[in-house]
Inverse folding.
């Protein structure tokens, strides 16, 4: 890689520092792409001592990160102190996390990094500090749209076994059903198809569109939404030349033979998408934000306050996120 990956600090009291250190320690064994952490080197030093591991840290600029990576964990200072103890967010946590995200996006937009990889954040901590976004995805979209209209962000959960996209995300099920529209399914699926071509190198993406109701509505006997909302979206996508099938019964979409027939499953609500992928690929699933003018991946897990600083956190999902970001950055965008 000619440019490193920009890795955000995430919630300082969570397992982000732990898995960052663990991933870097395995850099040679796993041939990981060069990355640098945007944050506070003092926090990392304290966390390394809590984990009882030896880590050489190097405070660098983004441009110096690749040269430093082999011998030291590169840290680009954000100037925002992170003082939280493991498992105990403090008054600096929210600002440290937000500043890291802002700077990572700025580095990618300025061409200093090839992609953004984000460590987990604690939404409750950010909300208490006045953060007014549902989560990472929406905040990244706002940063990407600085000076203009923010793009529509689309959350994909990707693994070698399965890729899924929920059309509605962090909504109560009643609200998700009420908010589901044909236009939303079409716009989401359109972004997925374009991203699979441009970022994943799939020339003709195949989309499997789930139904909303059991058995995709049983011809209207179990709800009419599949006939009135989902089916028109599938037809509109096909009219645009996108290989889309559905509405399909969600209970038969995720066994091995079914998964072999599509590149991504478009699901109508959060759990319909996340239950199958977390069952099949809990340790190596990656959260990817599509629809942004830059690449963003993230581990598919939370801050795990209960095990922060104990050494029990697995870096597997972060390692998968780093590798996927590298893969996406190396595919010529088209």
């Amino acid at each position: 890689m000619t440019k490193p990956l920009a890795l955000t600090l995430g919630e300082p009291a969570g397992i982000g520092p732990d898995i960052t250190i663990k991933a870097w320690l395995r850099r040679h064994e796993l041939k990981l792409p060069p990355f640098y952490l945007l944050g506070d080197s003092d926090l990392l030093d304290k966390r390394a001592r809590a984990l009882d591991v030896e880590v050489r840290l190097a405070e660098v600029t983004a441009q110096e990160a690749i040269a430093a990576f082999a011998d030291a964990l590169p840290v680009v200072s954000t100037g925002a102190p992170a003082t939280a103890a493991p498992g105990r967010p403090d008054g600096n946590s929210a600002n440290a996390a937000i500043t890291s995200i802002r700077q990572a996006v700025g580095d990618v937009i300025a061409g200093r990094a090839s992609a953004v990889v984000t460590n987990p954040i604690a939404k409750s901590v950010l909300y208490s500090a006045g953060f007014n976004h549902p989560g990472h995805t929406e905040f990244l979209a706002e940063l990407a749209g600085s000076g203009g209209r923010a793009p529509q962000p689309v959350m994909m959960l990707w693994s070698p076994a399965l890729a899924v996209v929920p059309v509605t995300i962090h909504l109560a099920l009643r609200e998700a059903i009420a908010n589901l529209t044909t236009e939303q399914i079409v716009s989401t699926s359109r972004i997925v198809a374009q991203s699979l071509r441009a970022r994943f190198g799939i020339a003709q993406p195949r989309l499997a569109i789930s139904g909303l109701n059991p058995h995709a509505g049983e011809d209207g006997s179990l709800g009419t939404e599949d006939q009135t909302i989902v089916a028109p979206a599938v037809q509109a996508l096909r009219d645009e030349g996108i290989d889309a099938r559905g509405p399909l019964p969600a209970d038969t979409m995720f066994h091995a033979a079914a998964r072999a027939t599509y590149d991504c499953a478009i699901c109508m609500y959060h759990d319909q998408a996340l239950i199958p992928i977390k069952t099949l690929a809990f340790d190596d699933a990656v959260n990817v934000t599509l629809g942004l003018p830059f690449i963003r991946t993230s581990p598919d897990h939370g801050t795990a306050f209960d095990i922060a600083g104990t050494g029990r956190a697995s870096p597997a999902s972060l390692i998968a996120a780093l590798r996927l970001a590298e893969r996406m950055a190396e595919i010529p965008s088209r």
